[in-house]
Amino acid sequence: MASQFQLTVPIRRCLQCSMGRASSYALGIRAFWASANVRTEASIENISSNPNIPPPGRLLDPNTVATPRLERRLLRETRRQPIGSRRRRAALQSTSNIPFEQLPYQCFQEARSLLLADRVNKLSQIEEERRRIAKIQATPAEHFGGEYVKKGRLVRMQKYLEELKILADINDPVIKKRFEDGEGDMNRPIYRYLADRQWRQQRRLILMQRINQMHIVPDVVSYLDPTAEVKMLFGRRNVQPGDFVESQNSETPPRLSIQVFDKGERFVSIVVIDPDVPNVEMDSFDSRCHFLAVNVRISPNSTFVSLAQTPDGSHTIRPWLPPHAQKGSPYHRLVVFILEQKDGQRPDSQDLKRMLETQAARFSIQSCMSRIHGKLTGIHLFRTKWDDGTASVMQRAGIKGADIELKRKKPEKLPYKKKNPERYR
Predict the structure, then answer these.
(1) pTM here?
(2) What's the confidence (pLDDT) of residue 306?
(3) Start-end of H helices in 32-67
(4) What are phi and psi of 312, to 5 degrees?
(5) Which of 75-79, 128-132, 379-383, 415-419 has the lowest mean pLDDT?
(6) What residues contact residue 260 under an 8 Å CB cut-off, 6+ apart?
(7) Residue 304: pLDDT band by 50, 70, 90 thresholds?
(8) Cα–Cα distance for residue pair 314/319, rounded to 1 Å
(9) Residues 116-137, buried b or exposed e (16+ Cβ, 10 A)?
(10) 30-49 exposure pattern, b = at least 16 Cβ within 10 A, e = fewer
């Protein structure tokens, strides 16, 4: 064994010397380098030249963010929404910035030429229809059998003219791209038509489902057919129809987005009511008005209305009353009604104030609609219930009843279920 150990000593010494020289040589050479080694440089070049990975400067571009995390970061840091679909934004990361109408695809360009020819045909039909309308307007009503017949014919021709305007642009890919990117001008009929169709395909169905589930019809109104989209925002939160909103969040007045899909400006009235106010004496529920404003001007391009500060020219009859529910009561439904004032009429504000005084405990939306001469065009709703901040909200608003707890009365048993004490004697 000793002889074997002595034989291995020179071999181990040679290995130790060679390893020491190699490490010192590597350390000496590496000390004079001022950049990364070749393998690191190659990996960096491959990453930077990969077209599928966007450079750091484009990560927060609304046209190129393609992951949910980057979309949330874009909304948080720049307060801007991503443009278009996520698939389109992912495709833009790896393509050059070519205008959409100049894409070098033969089939695409041939299809565009056919669509342009069809559009020219539709434009000629529009001009012809306008000449026909002008001719009928200049013709006396006796020639058509009366003013009523002439007016009905003009209405039908105007309707057909609007349909031709939509058919002229409905197949244009540039129009569809601008609409998907959120760059459409709502003053044009085609963009109003596309927005209305998109709203009716999903969001209006959800709204009507919530209305039916929460029995807004027939508890509050007997009939409802909304034609305008209403969105509600408490701070940065976009409230969906039927959502629960905490009392501290709903203490401040919300902002509304009222999107109409027909042309022209109009005056609307905004009414917010609570139909679930407990009436202990009558063992029923009453309605209470939480907000009322009239003569609010909106248009397809002017949609946002703040209930804290209504636009110029409008008149606030009842300022915002914070929604609240007493302890022990079921959740309260807060319904927002948008009433379009007929022919731009201005309702009498003093008459509405007297109505609020007489109907302080039992507010009726039907009587309000008759006084305003308004048509119900939009609706939104949310819910509130007793929470940890309701008492402080009621105290700051000067509302009584925060120290009262409602309890359900135990129902009396039916006569045939009562025990007869005479049987047990």
Answers:
(1) 0.75
(2) 93
(3) 38-49
(4) -65, 140
(5) 415-419
(6) 227, 228, 266, 298, 299, 300, 303, 377
(7) very high
(8) 13
(9) eeebeebeeebeebeeebeeee
(10) eeeeeeeeeeeeeeeeeeee
